[in-house]
Amino acid sequence: MPEPAPIPMSATLAADEALARRRRAGERVLSMAGGEIGLPVLPVLRERLAAAAAENAYGPVAGSPALRTAVAGYWERRGLAVDPGLVVAGPGSKSLLFALLLAIGGDVVVPVPSWVSYAAQARLAGARPIPVPIRPGQGGVPDPDRLREAVVDARAAGQDPRVVVVTVPDNPTGTVASAATVRRLADTARELDLVIVSDEIYGDLVYDSSEPAVSPALHAPERTVVTTGLTKNLALGGWRTGVARLPDSEPGRALHTRLVAVASQIWSSPPAPVQTAAAYAFGEPPEVTERIAASRRLHEKVVRAVAAHFAAAGAKAAPVAATCYLYPDFEPLREHLAQVHGVHDGDALAGLFSERYGVGVLPASAFGEPGRPLRIRAATSHFYGTTDERRTAALEAADPLALPWIRTAVDRVGEVLADLTGADVPALVPHS
Amino acid sequence: MPEPAPIPMSATLAADEALARRRRAGERVLSMAGGEIGLPVLPVLRERLAAAAAENAYGPVAGSPALRTAVAGYWERRGLAVDPGLVVAGPGSKSLLFALLLAIGGDVVVPVPSWVSYAAQARLAGARPIPVPIRPGQGGVPDPDRLREAVVDARAAGQDPRVVVVTVPDNPTGTVASAATVRRLADTARELDLVIVSDEIYGDLVYDSSEPAVSPALHAPERTVVTTGLTKNLALGGWRTGVARLPDSEPGRALHTRLVAVASQIWSSPPAPVQTAAAYAFGEPPEVTERIAASRRLHEKVVRAVAAHFAAAGAKAAPVAATCYLYPDFEPLREHLAQVHGVHDGDALAGLFSERYGVGVLPASAFGEPGRPLRIRAATSHFYGTTDERRTAALEAADPLALPWIRTAVDRVGEVLADLTGADVPALVPHS
Fold this sequence. Notes:
Distance between the termini of chain A: 62 Å
Radius of gyration of chain A: 21 Å
CATH topology of the largest domain in chain A: Aspartate Aminotransferase, domain 2
CATH architecture of the largest domain in chain A: 3-Layer(aba) Sandwich
Largest sheet of chain A: 7 strands, mixed
Largest interface: A-B, 78 and 78 residues
CATH superfamily of the largest domain in chain A: Type I PLP-dependent aspartate aminotransferase-like (Major domain)
Keywords (chains A, B): Aminotransferase, Pyridoxal phosphate, Transferase
Cofactor (chains A, B): pyridoxal 5'-phosphate
Enzyme class (chains A, B): transferase
EC number (chains A, B): 2.6.1.1
Low-confidence stretches of chain A: 428-432
Number of strands of chain A: 12
GO molecular function, one term (chains A, B): L-aspartate:2-oxoglutarate aminotransferase activity
CATH class of the largest domain in chain A: Alpha Beta
Mean pLDDT of chain A: 95
Strand order of the largest sheet of chain A: 2-8-7-6-5-3-4
Strand content of chain A: 5-15%
Oligomer: homodimer
Helix content of chain A: 40-55%
């Protein structure tokens, strides 16, 4: 059997699996690598899934009418009204993103840094990823000026860029691109005739409700595909449900037809019982919105406490405004890390966190960062407890940092950073 | 937005959706197009899924250890013992087949006729499908001599065939390739250094238990990947669960690594609650094996009754030995069809069934047949009733053909064929 080019395993999933193995082997580990949300299924959704257990028909490729109608309502409440006929559900937004790349064809512009799978998916789809850096604090959106340059250059070189992927709010930086940046991105995409695929899976996890993330679909509705799911806001990653909102335009409808055709050949339909429970969730009855709000508050408190430790240790980062991620830059500590630990880049830094301290984080290179930046991504979504009881307590606590298991995890980050940097253990988080 | 090459919608799923629309519009329709199994979820599996509704973690990309261990046992009981570490679960065997094509790379030999999605998937994966005809009655396995010729020619022409897909038992023909054919296929694949991907989703639906389907994995264990799922034997298509068995060889383990990497980038993991219920099913406790046996008996009785109508009408077909499919050839009626109906090929014949009689069938062209064969594929899996009560009664009936709703559907096929061919309405099925 001939051996084709290597395909990288998803860095987040690989790191999580490696850490789970070490934990089972009895090691003391702290997982900050993958962004899986460690919170229980909301009871009403558990009941809805259980009640749908007799559903075994495929149903429509694009998802059940009930699900698509509920999803259209979800988007309408966010200023993105859409015909349910232009909604496509799939077994996770990851699958939808890949199917979109196949359906659109051509090469793919990805932000730097960006989620581990965009570039890998582009390569699997036979495309070349075209990396374009973000501007500081504007995570997930390629700098519009550099986007223009890169696309013009790529076309001159014979490449065929047709789509730009953006992440609003952003993974890995935890920032939210400003309305102005999103508008400029939309204008530039129109000028370059690019489809925008806007991954908005963290849309419900912006801490400040007075400054929600702005979708490029507001500014370039004719060419923006929006994707989301229930993996982050409701911790339902293991249920595998994602949705896409196609543009209400002639090319948008043509893309819809192609996307459904790809879906019919690759996955047939999303899991039927999950569709029924997901339709209930996307309808956003009060218990669902309350759960999402509680999760958001929990992420914010824990992320900010951990961010304070990184800041105290001397790492730089744009203020986190959403998600459960930090993306600290240890550049100010470069000399110390080199002299004391022999660490010269993000990969070695992530290795140090893992080998010396049992702390799983991901290096900047996993997010497509070139060169040798001393950056890592850390997620706090595994801090909430290992049992449903603890996780529920974390959601319900007025001060989750006072819960001993969360306190221990956050303190551990402080200890590790103090040891790493040679500083005293900081005590920035007020004990209550 | 530039418009890339068209992607065909899955013919089976498209036909089912079109027929469902006509039924909702009040038309009298009989669906024989898609092969979805119209039977209820076995109660114990419904209970297992309901009990697993709190499971929301991704778990390992390849599926939970419990599921992979259960699947290894399922294969061991069929003479295909395997390390659970070489089992990969996915959201349907369709997704696994596609991921395998991506992971193997190169061009893909497909049998003619064969399932609608193999060639479409090969094209989506950037490969060229290389069609190789089957020998009569040996459905799903390319004629080994013609396979050798085609691969030698393709390589001489600069193509890169690396894999041959086979279907044992077969869709669309409902036949099972003989042990001798499978052995020759395996030998030829070894000679040509091709991976064999053996789609065995109908493996539990061979009517004669004394002559089970023979897997190429028995003859070429070092290079055969086997896929299956619970879609056909337990009617769980809507649950989306499939599994693959990788070869226990050095290239097999390398392919396993690549397959899991592709899975990690495209779908993360199969739906968690479904995995738990599927693990129970693959463990095959008595109620599961009894249900599978009852389904098999039901398919056999109904398919044979319908096949008798086609035979009486003058269509030819190899005897059906498995599945719920018929693949009748109307060549003996070519003159009549041309003169009376203006029908000259399978597409027009399927159109006539649909437009004039409201009977959904698929033309041979959907299965890759070139030329103008007067063949169609008909599935009987929608005949068992539209309610769980009727479907359960169908499973439990000693003589399902005596149930009025099944009788009506089977009789309707006879009426349609009589009208189509100008013959008297046959009454081959004994009324009880």
